[in-house]
Design the sequence.
């Protein structure tokens, strides 16, 4: 009954969207402002309908209406309410509805943004947002309907995959989607700008907060996904360069480039066409990412089974999204040419920005080629060839380190340099020297991996130059205001929130680099031990004390008790676990096994224990034990990126920028 | 500074493009790439795939799973077709622990090399999650 209402909502939503799109076009062609107001109201109705449909699906999931296919396939009675709600994005149909819902809300924010600066482009941008909404309404209504009924009502559902029953799986998809969807707003304004009679050079200013917000969500979404993989998938790593993982990285890389080129556009009136292109490509890559996940074109450990018609529609949609605006940009390239120009390539702030952007785009292309290489080689050579982690490391480790060093240098180049003034202050060269010494010392002290030593060195270099930059700003403020001490430093930071936010994010990048540097030194062992036996992994001594079984609602769990000490100092007991989940839809099917790892760690290292099996009732048990170095720095970096983005976005009173 | 502004910009871009291209080129070399094959392709002519770096996908045969936890060796067979008992199988040995989701009928992707007895020694083992499991 309620499912029928959901179905009706989706159908109504689709036709309302058609109507709104037509209204916009008619209004724009006829320059009818009243009709545009009507269309804006239509955008709000689209959002209300999408919200209603989403609410209905959540209600069906929570109350367990097992006459609906989606509810049967993704939940069961025993599932905790939180995971029943999260089943909204556990499947193809539901996650598309979530995307649509978020998109229509964003559509309202765009249509009703009370921003004088975007008044001229807003109707056209809203039209583009509506066009995108139409695509998602259409595929949900006609191809991927989450309200589809089962022929009979089932007594219970199949349940949610136990791997998804984790708090990280609530955060990761939603933040990622907020990022993906968020890039639609800068996209819409960029394209509106291209199709507007008069180019609007100010577009980067009022799209800045959209871009930053989307980028922040995407960053957190990606890192949260990595953390989920680390604690939940039980293979001890956080990133495998799987095509689907890479898919989330594409818009992140081009989005990062967009943030930087938009800043140059704002400051120097240069890189206008580049920024437009990056805004278009970033959203295109967001849609491409979800296509890659859903289509099955490239083999991945993750992902949905492909549906040919849906794939065709996605390809067509992406072609329209990306190719049409880019062709338009090419045709009107003279009108979007830069007023300003970049004079110094290696010795100016904007020059280093351009260099970093080329590296970001270069990395995107290299990862894209890698991810699509099975497809490329199949088409061109008739032989499908896959590239493994080795390829991505060879390409991305040097690029990442180069980027980190460029970042450290870029911080110290002033926006405005007096003629005759040196490019870098003297202490910059000291910081470079100190970094060189650090890298050599690290290497001699046993960090016998040049990539790791350089990564830590680059992090040190970034942090050092951030501190030097903060202190030089504080000094100038002290000279101007006479204020001194720590208050002066704090006020010099908080006085410019955009700069403060950027400092935090770049500091976070440095911490993440430290986290990445640990991976080459990870220790991994798998071995079978008897009850009471003690074995050594790295600096840890582990003693297996036996197995216990526990019944928890919905599944049973067997856990091992392992006493742990480090260099003889007792640390306590760790309990790696193996869970057995029943398939409620098919009780005769074997129980699904899932290992729940035990992790304990600090800033230096994690001890990571997996219970892999046992024999004779636990007389012997097999453990995979890993010591993973520096991993926690990555998660700290993630939280700092979130904080930095919020600081950079925090509204400030209007003030005159230098 | 004899070089023009455009020349310097071009040089900078050129250096980066060349560096990325070189990295991609080096990335392709040697052990970083493997041929993707299906179980049926390999079983059709096993001899021709010996000692090649292979990436193989097939469907796990539940009854074939032999997990020797004492020695940490996992033996199993991959079938060409899902849920088809008559489907020919490829034997795999993996020196590592049994991963999550390692159940009958699930699609498994392995990377490794094949010996003259047509047994594949896998260095990497991945379970493609069933359709129910969908990330993103």
Sequence:
């Amino acid at each position: 009954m309620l499912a029928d209402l959901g179905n009706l909502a989706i159908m109504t939503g689709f036709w309302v969207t058609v109507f709104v799109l037509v209204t916009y076009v008619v209004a724009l062609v006829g320059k009818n402002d009243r009709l545009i107001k009507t269309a804006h109201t239509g955008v709000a109705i689209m959002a209300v309908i999408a919200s209603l449909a989403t609410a209905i699906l959540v209600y069906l999931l929570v109350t367990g209406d097992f006459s609906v296919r989606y509810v049967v396939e993704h939940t069961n009675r025993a599932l905790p309410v939180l995971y029943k709600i999260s089943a909204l994005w556990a499947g193809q149909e539901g996650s598309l509805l979530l995307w649509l819902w978020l998109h229509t809300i964003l559509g309202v924010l765009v249509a009703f943004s009370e921003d004088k600066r975007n008044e001229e482009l807003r109707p056209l941008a809203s039209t583009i947002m509506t066009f995108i909404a139409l695509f998602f309404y259409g595929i949900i209504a006609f191809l991927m309907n989450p309200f589809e009924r089962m022929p009979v009502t089932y007594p219970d559902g199949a349940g949610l995959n136990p791997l998804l029953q984790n708090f990280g799986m609530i955060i990761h998809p939603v933040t990622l989607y907020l990022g993906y969807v968020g890039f639609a707003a800068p996209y819409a304004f960029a394209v509106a700008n291209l199709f507007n009679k008069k180019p609007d050079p100010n577009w980067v200013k009022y799209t800045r907060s959209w871009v930053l917000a989307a980028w922040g969500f995407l960053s957190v979404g990606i890192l949260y996904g990595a953390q989920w993989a680390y604690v939940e998938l039980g293979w001890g790593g956080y990133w495998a360069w799987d095509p689907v993982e890479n898919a989330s990285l594409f818009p992140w890389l081009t989005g990062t480039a967009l943030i930087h080129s938009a800043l140059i556009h704002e400051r120097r009136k240069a890189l206008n066409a580049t920024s437009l292109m990056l805004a278009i490509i970033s959203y295109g890559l967001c849609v491409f990412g979800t296509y890659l996940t859903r289509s099955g074109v490239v083999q991945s450990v993750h992902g949905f089974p492909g549906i040919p018609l849906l794939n065709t529609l996605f390809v067509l949609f992406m072609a329209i999204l990306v190719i049409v605006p880019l062709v338009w940009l090419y045709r009107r390239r003279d009108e979007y040419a830069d007023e300003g120009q970049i004079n110094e390539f290696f010795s100016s702030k904007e020059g280093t920005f351009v260099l970093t952007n080329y590296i970001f785009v270069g990395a995107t292309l290299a990862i894209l080629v890698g991810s699509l290489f099975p497809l490329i080689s199949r088409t061109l050579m008739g032989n499908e060839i896959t590239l493994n982690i080795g390829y991505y490391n060879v390409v991305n480790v040097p690029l990442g380190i180069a980027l980190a060093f460029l970042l450290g240098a870029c911080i110290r180049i002033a926006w405005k340099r007096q003629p005759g003034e040196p490019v870098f202050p003297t202490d910059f060269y000291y910081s470079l020297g100190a970094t060189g010494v650090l890298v050599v010392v690290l290497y001699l002290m046993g960090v016998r991996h040049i990539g790791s030593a350089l990564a830590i060195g680059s992090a040190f270099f970034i942090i050092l130059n951030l501190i030097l930059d903060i202190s030089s700003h504080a000094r100038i403020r002290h000279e101007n205001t006479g204020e001194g001490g720590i208050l002066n430093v704090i006020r010099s930071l908080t006085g410019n929130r955009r700069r403060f936010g950027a400092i935090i994010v770049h500091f976070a990048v440095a911490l993440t680099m430290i986290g990445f540097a640990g991976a080459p030194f990870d220790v991994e062992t798998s071995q079978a031990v008897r009850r009471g036996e003690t074995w050594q992994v790295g600096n840890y001594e582990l003693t297996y004390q036996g197995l216990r079984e526990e019944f928890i609602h919905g599944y049973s769990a067997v856990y091992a008790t392992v006493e742990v000490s480090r260099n003889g100092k007792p640390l306590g007991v760790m309990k790696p676990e193996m869970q057995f989940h029943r398939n409620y839809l098919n009780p005769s099917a074997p129980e699904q096994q899932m290992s729940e790892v035990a992790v304990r760690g600090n800033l230096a290292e994690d001890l990571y224990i997996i219970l892999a099996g046992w024999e004779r009732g636990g007389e012997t048990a097999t453990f995979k034990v890993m010591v993973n170095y520096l991993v926690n720095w990555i998660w700290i970096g993630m939280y700092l990126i979130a904080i930095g983005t919020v600081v950079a976005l925090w509204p400030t009173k209007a003030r005159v920028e230098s | 500074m004899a070089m023009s502004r455009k020349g310097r910009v071009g040089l900078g871009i050129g250096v980066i493009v060349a560096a990325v291209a070189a990295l991609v080129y080096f990335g392709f070399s040697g052990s970083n790439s493997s041929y993707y094959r299906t179980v049926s392709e390999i079983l059709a002519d096993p001899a021709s795939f010996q000692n090649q770096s292979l990436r193989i996908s097939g469907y796990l045969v539940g009854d074939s799973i032999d997990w020797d936890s004492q020695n940490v060796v996992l033996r199993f067979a991959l079938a060409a077709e899902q849920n088809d008992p008559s489907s020919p199988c490829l034997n795999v040995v993996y020196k590592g622990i049994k991963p999550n989701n390692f159940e009958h009928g699930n699609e498994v992707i392995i990377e490794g090399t094949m010996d003259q007895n047509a047994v594949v020694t896998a260095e990497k083992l991945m379970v493609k999650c069933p359709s129910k499991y969908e990330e993103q």
